[in-house]
Amino acid sequence: MVTDELLSIDFGALRTLRLVWQLGSFSKAAAELGVKQSTVSYTIDRLRKALDDPLFVRQGGGIAATERCAAAVGAAEQILSEIEDLAAHSEFNPAAAEGTITISCNYYARMTFLGDVVRRIRSDAPGLDLHLVPGFIVGPLLFGGDVDIAISPIPAEASGLFRQVLTKDNPVCLMDKSNPLAKGPVTMEDYCTATHAYVDFGASVATVMERELKLKGLSINKAITIPDPAALPNLISGTDLIATIPSRFAGLFSDQLAIAGSPMTWQTHIYMFWTARSHRSPLNIWMRDLIAASAEKLEPPYEP
Predict the structure, then answer these.
(1) pLDDT band at residue 263, thresholds of 50, 70 and 90?
(2) Residue 237 neighbours by CB distance under 10 Å
(3) In this structure, are residues 65 and 72 in contact, taking their beta carbons and an 8 Å threshold?
């Protein structure tokens, strides 16, 4: 039911809600808006009454958003983005573009297709600065305003969040060329008895590989764990270790190490994410199209 209180909410109130959510603080939002904290509190109280929800609750030394608040912020993002689009010029001239665009991305994106993106920017939009930052959990980065576009293998769904699949890849086994398993393909029995150099992207990220092993009731011997694949040639050369990584990664190391087929069947999806706030931004659209086009240029997944 649409109440009189809800109909009285203006764009300024939605902007305040979004800012408090992004900054996690009434006082910081007030400072950003150049108003007193009491003004922010009054606005949030109006929204609480209109939405019949506390929106923000005390947690520890700060505040935490409720589920309804997160949904409201998503709706506010979409409304505000459409209003902001009305004031934006529909044409985008890369050669005249200035400023910085920030993208969160993982090692895979940086090593495979983002090099092409950088070259295109330097050629077509030299006044545009590109800031690449690490990040897997994309929602807080995007909604918090820390990044403009996020690239991640971790799927995310939230109101006000858009997603596009950029590319897919399949796993292979990487090892020293003298390893008996290098003749491949590696059987599941071989795989489970081998010693592994395991690429661990962090405790907060449950990899598809781990999920597949768990579903099969299997486990592997993780002799060493590393945060990314960059040093694999140095770490597993001359050892009995094997590593399971996406095939395009393995292709980068094919002159130093052997590549064999893997018994694992998971597939890596690389997603691009953005918010409703930037959905119709000419600059953001240009960057998303550039990223997608660069990913499409990738060679098919490496096959040993």
Answers:
(1) very high
(2) 15
(3) no
